[in-house]
Amino acid sequence: MRVSTNSIFINNVANMMQKQTQLNQVEGQLSTMRRVTVPSDDPVAAAQILDVRQADARVLQFNQNAKSAENSLATSESVLQSGIDVLQRARELAVKVSNTTLSNEDRQMTMSEIEGLYKQMVGIANTTDGNGSYVFSGSRSQIKPIAEQSEFGRPVASGSSIVGYNGDSMRQEMQIAGSRQIPVTENGEFVFNKIRDGNGTFKLTNGFPAGYTPVAPNTTAGARPNVDVDQGTVTDAALFATKTDDPAPPAAPIGFKQIEVVFGSEWNHVGAQGSATDPTDFYYDVVVETGAPGPAGFTSLITGKTGATRELASDLYKQQTEQVDPLKNNAVPPTDLAGIPFPTPTGYPKYKPGADIDLTASYGIKLNAKGDTPTSGGVVAINKSQDKSIFDTLNEFGLALQQDVTTPQGMTDFTNKMGNILTHVDATMTRLLSVEARMGSGRREADTLVSVGEGFSLQYKTNLSRLQDLDVAKAVSELILTKTALQASQSTFAQVQKLTLFNYI
């Protein structure tokens, strides 16, 4: 078989190009220390490398998010703890002033400290993180959340607050895993403003709230029982909510079917009130006021009687066929009643200091009043709990320190106000503690995910190394062999180039 000179030439050129390509490939691998520099080097490995790199990039991004979340959550935790410390001090002061007779100078010093605590709380609510973003503004992180609207120590109009909230109700969240997002902040409206007063279901006030006029012929507007009342106990919040819902509620600021505990004293045979020092002389009625006009607007929960027909211990007493209403100053003169005994009010329980006023069956609540001498005609009003700002509570603390406590009534009112303030401070502390606990849990979760992510990232890098890293010894050996083969091809090609017919003439 004859092989033409042209065929030999073409084969040698192809062989040299192949060896040159192999040499370039090996040299490229050695220069990058990568076995796979282009997909054509190893298509299967190249696809695997792409998948591993994408997975590693996701893990790295989640780790960065988790570390950022850790920092944000740590800031929130620290700030919330500062708020708890402020409230703890406010609580200590409230307990102190409730159990100690203070001089005017002491009261002024206490008020100054409360104002300082109020300012601290405003500053805490307006805290910024390391990026200059407000922690408690929700998603509006560039807007200061709390703005003061009134001067501390001044009364605030009904329905208004000493501060305004400029953030929103959102929470900033950060994705720290493929299907996991955690909140890294909380909005200030939830943390500081929307704290239920009273016991969270209802609250008690001595006398009617300011601006409320009870339906006649109820007791005197604003009359106080001169006994300490606590926030009671909730046995069935759903029952209370249902029973106090009224399509036609009384006048503002009640806004629901009003419940009142009315205290009264027994009258003796000469028309005078019974002993003011003997608590056994006092009775009470529980009155439900619906807002209807006139006597039909209220009903005795105890006797079931409505309006002027009910024998309320502090309002209406029967003397034969006549009704006596001492609170309306229309009682028959004592001289006309001499020797005629008044009957003991029937159906009404006697007031026992410290004993429960049990409304469990009818309203799902219990009340407790402490003190030995209720004021005849005095009222404890039961109101639905409302959202309240801790800033307003601290301001009310300052206002309470300014009121007169030189009279027994003034001292009782002050004590009851401090009890309400303590209850709301405790509720706010509970709220801050719960948010702090959630932030702490999120921070620990983020920290755990950072550790897990670092482990995955290490595994991905190991896989990448296995897939793409170069075996240097093998590559060097291959380089030498390829160079030798290329040189042989080049030498052969040079010899083939010299082949002509003249060599044989």
Question: How does this model look, in words?
Answer:
The protein has nine helices and 17 strands. The chain is α+β, with helices and mostly antiparallel strands and 505 residues long. Strands 6-16-9-10-11 form a five-stranded antiparallel sheet. Helix 1 packs antiparallel against helix 9, helix 3 runs antiparallel to helix 7 and helix 7 packs antiparallel against helix 8. The radius of gyration is 43 Å and the shape is rod-shaped.
Q: Can you summarize this structure?
A:
The protein is an alpha+beta fold and 505 residues long.
- Could you name the CATH class of the largest domain? Mainly Alpha
Portion of residues within helices: 40-55%
Q: Walk across the major sheet and give the strand order.
A: 6-16-9-10-11
Instruction: State the fourth-level CATH superfamily of the largest domain.
Output: f41 fragment of flagellin, N-terminal domain
Percent of residues in beta strands: 5-15%
Task: Record keyword descriptors for this entry.
3 domains, f41 fragment of flagellin, N-terminal domain, 505 residues, five-stranded antiparallel beta sheet, alpha+beta, four-stranded antiparallel beta sheet
Outline the fold blueprint.
Layout: H1 5-32, H2 43-99, H3 104-125, E1 146-148, E2 163-165, E3 173-177, E4 180-183, H4 188-193, E5 195-196, E6 202-206, E7 228-229, E8 233-234, H5 237-243, E9 258-265, E10 282-289, E11 298-300, E12 317-319, E13 322-324, E14 356-359, H6 360-363, E15 365-370, E16 379-384, E17 387-388, H7 390-400, H8 408-468, H9 472-497
Antiparallel strand pairs: 1-2, 3-4, 5-17, 6-16, 7-15, 8-15, 9-10, 9-16, 10-11, 12-13, 14-15
